[in-house]
Amino acid sequence: MSLINTEVKPFKATAYLNGEFIDVTEADLQGQWSIFFFYPADFTFVCPTELGDLADNYAEFKKLGVEIYSVSTDTHFTHKAWHDSSETIGKLQYPMIADPTLQISRNFEVLIEEAGLAERGTFVVDPDGKIQIVEINAGNIGRNAEELLRKVKAAQYVRANPNEVCPAKWKEGEETLAPSLDLVGKI
Predict the structure, then answer these.
(1) Which domains does the chain have, with CATH numbers?
(2) pLDDT at 147 over 70
(3) Which residue, 100, 102, 132, 138, has most beta carbons within 10 Å?
(4) What is the pTM of this model?
(5) How many Å apart are CA 28 and CA 59, to the nearest integer?
(6) Strand duo 117-118 + 33-38: pairing
(7) Which GO terms of the cellular component aspect does the record hold (predicted)?
(8) What pLDDT was estimated at residue 183?
(9) Across 17-44, average pLDDT
(10) Of 3, 17, 47, 51, which one is the catalytic site residue?
């Protein structure tokens, strides 16, 4: 079953953010756009490149009213240790959610049960707490924050303009499509 247009299931977790441990629940998502960015583990190879890329683009996401939540099955203590010891991870200004119980990874259907780790899953959640974008990458394929930013802009555009759709490679300010019988077979 697809998770598209389903509500984020209830959860409560501890996250590391700016030198503090904070609680995060599904209620925190209400009224804003959110990204859940699952990755396999702290202190690894591809993961810090992805999290650093998000950190480099974080201000652009914030301008769009988007909060990013990185999530791994590590503990919040491990997140703090990684944040304190890595120059790349030290740049992060978004919450690093700890999922040692594996509940959140199971809720988003990205848990690798036999390993106790999460797949590289990206989920864009709308202000109603519903999942609008799902992307899962193999463990050895990193993601691109600029492409994710483009997808968030498209999701926000079609939410604000429900009679339009964004074609392939759409970028903010470009033409959209208004689905109709007149377009069938003409594109």
Answers:
(1) 6-143 (3.40.30.10)
(2) yes
(3) 132
(4) 0.95
(5) 19
(6) unpaired
(7) cytosol
(8) 66
(9) 97
(10) 47
